[in-house]
Amino acid sequence: MRFFTVSFIPALLAAMLLVSCGDTGNPNPERTGLAGFIVEFSDDFDLGSEEDRTPASREIVDGNIIAKINVTAIGYDKKRLEDYNGTVSIGLRYGINRGVARTELKNGLLSNHEVKMTDCLDKDRVVVQEVIKTDDSSQPVPTGKLGVSPEFYAEAASIVAIQSTIDKGKGSPSRFDKRNLTISGHPMVVTAVIEGGFYVTQVDAKEYASIYLYSHSTPFVEDDSDVVTLPVGTLVESANGSVSEFFGYTEMSFPTYTPVYEEKDGKKTIKIDTSLIPDPIDISSFVTDSDEMEKYEASIVTIKNVTVSDFNENDSAYTEYSQFPLATKYGKVLAQTIYTAPSFDPVKEKSTDHRFDFTGILKQHTSARPTWIIVPRDQNDIKCLNCEQQ
Question: Measuring CA to CA, which residue among 80, 78, 91, 83 is closest to residue 21?
Answer without folding.
Answer: 78
